[in-house]
Design goal:
Elements lengths: L1 E3 L3 H11 L6 E3 L11 E3 L5 E3 L5 E2 L3 H9 L4 E3 L5 E5 L7 E4 L7 E4 L4 H9 L4 E3 L4 E6 L4 E5 L4 E4 L2 E3 L3 H7 L1 E3 L4 H8 L9 E7 L3 H4 L2 E7 L4 E6 L8 E7 L8 H15 L9 E6 L35 E3 L12 H14 L4
Length: 348
C-alpha cells in the first residue's frame, strides 16, 4: 500500500490501516509532514498556526482521535468587546459575542500535536521530498515515478492530495476519465488562496483592556483577527487573515499596514509586537496551482461522488478534505475522508 501525501488524511489512513496489519509507505513532496496543518514556533517557543486551526463541537471524529491520543483542546477566547469595521466612513461597531454562540476549539500545543501523535504511532515508512509525477497501471500493481526518477510499486495507491493538484501535477497512464479531470479542475483547494499572519506580544493587552482580540472587516489590512494565546495563558499572540488586496505588496509593507490597522481598531499597543510571521498559501506549490485565484475554482462542492470512486481497476483511490462527504474543508473532513477510504480498503 502506498499513500501519496503525509497530511492529516494520509497519516490517519496509515494509522487506521496499520491497526489492521496493512504495511504502508507514505510519500510526501514537502520536507515536512502535516500538509496544510502548519504550526510554527517562535523565538520564545510560542506555537502559532499558519494553517488549520479551529474545529467545532460537531467535529466528532476529530475529537475522538484527539481523545485517543490524550491530546487536550480548549475554547477559542472570545470574551469581551469585539470590533466590526463596516467602512472607513462610519465608526466601527463594537459588540460582545453571545455566550450561547457555537464554540470553536484549538488543540493544546498546536494542531501539530495531532500530526506528531499520528506519526509517532505509525510504523509506516515516510519518504519526504519526493514528488510523484507519474502513475502507471502495470496490471497487478501501480508504478509510481517521482521527480527524482525513483520508482515505487504498490498494489493499492491512495492519493491524499488536493484534487486540483492531482490533475495538474500527476500524469496517469492510462489517463483518468475526462469527467474525473473536469471535477478535479473545478474543485477549489481549501486554504489555497488564504494569507495568514501572526503577531506575538509580551502580554495580552487586549484582554487587559476588556477586549476579545477579534476584529472583523472586509476593507482593512486584515479581514479577520483573533486572540491566539496558548492554553496555558503564558504566551500571547494575535492571528488572522490578510486582505488579499495586499498580496502584491512586500512583506514589510503588509506587516506595517496590519500593525497600523490593529493600532487603530484594537489598541495602540499593537505596535509593540515581538515577532511577525505570515504565510501566503497561494505561493505554496504543494497546495496551490497557478490559477488558484480564479473565481472559477468555486464551482463544485466538496465530496463529489466522482472523487470517491476507485480507478485503475480498483487499485487507485483519492482522499482528502475536499473529497469528504461531511465537513469538507475542515480537519474533520480530512479525517472523515480517511475513515471512509480505510473502511473501503479490501486488500485488492
Amino acid at each position: 500500500m502506498i499513500i501519496i501525501g503525509a497530511g492529516l488524511t494520509g497519516l490517519t489512513i496509515a494509522y487506521l490501516l496499520q491497526q489492521r496489519g496493512v504495511e504502508v509507505t507514505i510519500i510526501e513532496s514537502r520536507n515536512r509532514i502535516g500538509g496544510r496543518i502548519h504550526t510554527v514556533g517562535t523565538e520564545n517557543n510560542t506555537d502559532l498556526e499558519l494553517g488549520a486551526t479551529w474545529f467545532g463541537s460537531a467535529h466528532v471524529h476529530l475529537r475522538v482521535l484527539l481523545d485517543e491520543f490524550n491530546i487536550g483542546y480548549f475554547e477559542q477566547y472570545q470574551e469581551g468587546e469585539s470590533t466590526l469595521v463596516y467602512n472607513t466612513m462610519v465608526p466601527p461597531h463594537r459588540f460582545v459575542t453571545p455566550s450561547n454562540q457555537e464554540k470553536s476549539y484549538r488543540i493544546e500545543n498546536g494542531s501539530k500535536a495531532l500530526i506528531e501523535a499520528l506519526s509517532n504511532a505509525s510504523t509506516s515508512l515516510i519518504v519526504l521530498n519526493e514528488k510523484i509525477e507519474r502513475i502507471q497501471d502495470k496490471g497487478n500493481y501501480l508504478e509510481l515515478t517521482s521527480h527524482t526518477n525513483k520508482v515505487y510499486n504498490g498494489s493499492y495507491v491512495i492519493v491524499a492530495m488536493p484534487p486540483k493538484l492531482i490533475s495538474t501535477q500527476i500524469l496517469f497512464s492510462p489517463g483518468l476519465p475526462s469527467e474525473v479531470i473536469t471535477v478535479m479542475n473545478a474543485t477549489h483547494t481549501w486554504m489555497s488562496d488564504a494569507m495568514k499572519f501572526t503577531l506575538t506580544y509580551k502580554t495580552s493587552f487586549w484582554k487587559r483592556e476588556g477586549k476579545s482580540g477579534m476584529v472583523i472587516s472586509q476593507i482593512g489590512a486584515a479581514t479577520e483577527v483573533y486572540d491566539h494565546s496558548n492554553y496555558l495563558e503564558n504566551q500571547f499572540a494575535l492571528m488572522g487573515f490578510i486582505n488579499q488586496n495586499l498580496r502584491n505588496y512586500s512583506r514589510e509593507d503588509r506587516k506595517a499596514k496590519i500593525v497600523a490597522y490593529l493600532s487603530e481598531y484594537l489598541s495602540s499597543e499593537a505596535e509593540n509586537y515581538l515577532e511577525y510571521n505570515e504565510k501566503d498559501w497561494s505561493l505554496d506549490e504543494h497546495t496551490s496551482s497557478k490559477d488558484v485565484l480564479k473565481a472559477s475554482d468555486y464551482r463544485i462542492p466538496y465530496g463529489n461522488p466522482i472523487l470517491n470512486k476507485k480507478y485503475m481497476k480498483n487499485k487507485l483511490h483519492f482522499s482528502g478534505t475536499e473529497t469528504s462527504k461531511q465537513f469538507g474543508g475542515y480537519m474533520e473532513g480530512a479525517i472523515v475522508a480517511a475513515i471512509d477510504v480505510a473502511n473501503d480498503f479490501n486488500g485488492e
